[in-house]
Design brief:
about 120 residues, mainly alpha, rod-shaped, RNA polymerase II cis-regulatory region sequence-specific DNA binding, bZIP
Length: about 120
């Protein structure tokens, strides 16, 4: 070591060298450590990618289920809307001939046991 320069392979020298210009590791232990670290990193990256893929697959399945449920619910809304139209038309027709609605006495609130029975033919 002359004139205050760091020794070859020291921590200071390695931190100042460019990534592509690094000297060879000093010992087989450094080499093994580097290989183990790269392998561990490779496995961790694979695990991370697999987890990310599984999460995306799960979200896609959930999306498809919700789309199917949405389709079923929209059909049900359509059926119920049609039923509402039909029942409203029936009610309008019934109101034209209902004796309870035509009789002025029925506009006075009177408790009835069975209000539907008055509408039925005798």
């Amino acid at each position: 070591m002359s004139q205050g320069l760091p020794a070859a392979g020291s921590v200071l020298q390695r931190s100042f060298t460019a990534p592509g210009n690094q000297a060879q590791p000093q010992s087989p232990e450094d080499d093994d450590r580097k290989v183990r670290r790269r392998e561990k990193n490779r496995v961790a990256a694979q695990r991370s990618r697999k987890k990310q893929t599984q999460k995306a697959d799960k979200l896609h399945e959930e999306y498809e289920c919700l789309e199917q449920e949405n389709t079923v619910l929209r059909r049900e809304i359509g059926k119920l809307t049609e039923e509402l139209k039909h029942l409203s038309e029936l009610l309008k027709e019934h109101e034209k001939i209902c004796p309870l609605l035509l009789c002025p006495v029925n506009f006075v609130p009177v408790p009835r046991l069975d209000p539907v029975a008055g509408c039925l033919p005798r």
